[in-house]
């Protein structure tokens, strides 16, 4: 089943929020999801310990560079989707995860610092493609955007990505209180109370559109060549 990794070399890019939104949206559709929490902050592992975690979401937090590829392969056999939340540095865990990903999502806020952090991951992907001898499909997700205003910095990032010919999701992840509340109270967006969370309906719509774009991309992916390479090596 598809392996989707979230990576940005700069922390605070909205990477973990994007990964959790995708996981909970997929789970709401009745699919089994395994999340690998490779971020040292372990926000998703903390979320998993809160009430309301869907039963069809499993979270793996014990990860080593040597075991990660095999762990992902095993999870891909048992789950409908595997999601990997990577740490914000370039290291062996990040490289191994990207190498066995069917899709890499690079979350970027509307700032030059985030764009540079995202560019580091995109450069790493290009290097890894030469090593594994196959394309690693990737796209950019704009995060923490303002629903009402497109800032000058965000426009500059969009222009930078367009010039580079990078695949950018049409649906940006808008800054919403509902997304922050996931990490405070657990569960998914559907479990939140609209009387207590502002613009919950808009947050739910935004997350659904974001997830739909990701799922559309992985549904048309070719048979993963990396799986057979790693399987033979094992």
Automatic annotation (TrEMBL):
Protein name: Chromosome partitioning protein
Pfam families (alphabetical): VirC1
Listed PANTHER family: COBQ_COBB_MIND_PARA NUCLEOTIDE BINDING DOMAIN-CONTAINING PROTEIN, P-LOOP CONTAINING NUCLEOSIDE TRIPHOSPHATE HYDROLASE
Lineage of source species: Bacteria, Pseudomonadati, Pseudomonadota, Alphaproteobacteria, Hyphomicrobiales
